[in-house]
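Thread: quick sanity check before group meeting

JM: Hey all, I'm pulling together slides for Thursday and realized we never actually wrote out the predicted structure for the chain we discussed last week. Dropping the sequence here so it's in one place. If anyone has concerns about the input, flag it before I start.
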Amino acid sequence: MKLFCYTFLFLVLSACTKDKGYVLTGDYPADIDKLITTRCAVSGCHNTVSKDAASGLDLSSWSSLFRGSRSGSPVIPFSSRFSSLCYFINTYSDLGTINAPTMPIGEAPLTREEVSRLKGWIDAGAPDFKGTVAFSGPAVKKLYAVNQGCDVVTVFDSETHLPIRYIEVGSGKSTPHQVRVAPDGKFWYVVFLNSNVMKKYRCSDDAFVADIPLTPLAAKTGTQNALDWNTFVISDDGKRAYCVSWTAVGAVSTVDLLNHRLIRMSPGWNYPHGICLSKDGAKIYLAAQTGNYISEIDSAFNLSTLNEYALDGTQVSSVSSLDPHDMGLNEGGNRLYVTCQKSNEVIVFDLTSKTSVARIPTPYYPQELVYSKKYTSWYLTCSGDGSPTDPGSVMKINSDLSTLTLRHGAQPHGLAVDERSGLLYVLSRNISSSGPLPHHTSQCQGKNGFVSFLDPLDLKSTGDKFELSVDPYFIYPQP
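JM (edit): ok, ran it. Output follows.
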C-alpha cells in the first residue's frame, strides 16, 4: 500500500511540475494555464500585484480574467474575433486583428501555435479546467445592445455590467438597428436597416431561433421595397410585434412571433419612426419623424379609424418642423411622451383631450426615451452635434416634469435602466471625428463606441466606461 501511495504521489507531482518552476493553478485548462501564467500573468504585467498598471486586467486565474479590465471584457466566450486580448498577442496578419503594443511587452511574441491555441480556446467558450463557461445558464440576467457598424449584438451581464457575448446577427451589411426582449424574458428580437427580416434568438443561450419575414417576399429570393426597419414594439402577451420601416413610403408590419410569419404589411406612411401601443393593445401610435404629428390607428390597421394629431396645435404637416423621433406611454396609459429632434423638446400629449399639455426643452437633438417604474422618471439621450463643445447629454424628467441634465459625450444614443442593479446604461456611438480615440481597433471599419453607467437618481457617473464594437446604437434589458 505504501508503495502504491508513494508512486501515485510521485505521478501527481511530476504531472503538475513537468516544467521546472511551473505549477498549475487549477483554474484554467492545463495548456492554457501554462501559457497565460508564464507569459502574461507575470511580475510587472497582468498579475494580481501589477494589474493596476496594466489596465486593471488580472490574468492570474480564470476567475480574475472574467472580472474584466478598465476597458471592459478582454475575452468574450465563443468569440475570439471580438476578444481584444487576441489583438494584442497576435503578430500574424492571417490570424486576425493586430494591435500595438504586442504582448508580452519586451519579450518574444507568442508563436503562431500559441496564438492559435488561445483563439481556439476562446472560440470553444474559454472554459475553466472543469469545463465551466463564464456567464452561462438561464439564471444570468442580461441586457442586449445592437452595434450598427459591425452586425453584432453585444450581451451584457446585469450583475457585473460587463459585455459577456458578441452575437453575430448579420452578414456584414445588414446593419442591426433595434433590439428588444419579449415581456416574459425568454426571447430577444432584432430588426435591420438593410434586411427585410426580423431575427429571433433565445435568451437562455442566445441561440438563433428563426427569421421572421417583414414583407411578403422577404422569405423568398426576391424582396419587396420596405427595408430601413428602424423600430418595433412587442405586445404585452409576447405574441405579436409591430415593426416600422422608416422611408418616404414607410410601412408598418405586424408579425406573429410564435409562428414566425408576417400577418400584414401596411405601406404608405410618411417617414414613420417612433411607435407605441395603447395600454390595452387596441391602438397603435406612430410618430412622423418628418413633420409635426402623430398618427393613431387600431392595431388591426383599419384605415377608417385613422386619426392624426399635430403636436404643436397647428395643422398636420409633413414639412420638417418638430420631427418627433421616439415616444413612450406613461404608466396611466393616458399620455405620450415624445422626443422632437428638430425643435429640441419633449412634448407630453394627452390622449384623452388629444392635445399637448407640456413642452419640455431639451439639449440639442433628443433621441431615445425610456421610462423606469422603479424611479418614476423618464430618461432620454440628446446626441448633440458631435463637436467638442456639444458631444451630447443625458436628461432625466421627473414625475413633476422637473428635469436634470448631464453633459455626456460622445454622441449618446441608446439607454436602458437596469432596475436590478440600479444603473442607467448609456451607449455612446462615438462616430464623430472629434470623439475619443478607442483603446483598440475593431474587427469592423470605424472607431469603437462605449457604454458608461449612471446613477438613475442623480445621473452621477460610476466612473466605469467599457469599450464596445463600432456604433453601439440601442440597448434593451431582459425583464
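AS: nice. DSSP finds five helices and 28 strands in the chain. The first strand starts at residue 142 and ends at 147.
JM: adding both to the slides.
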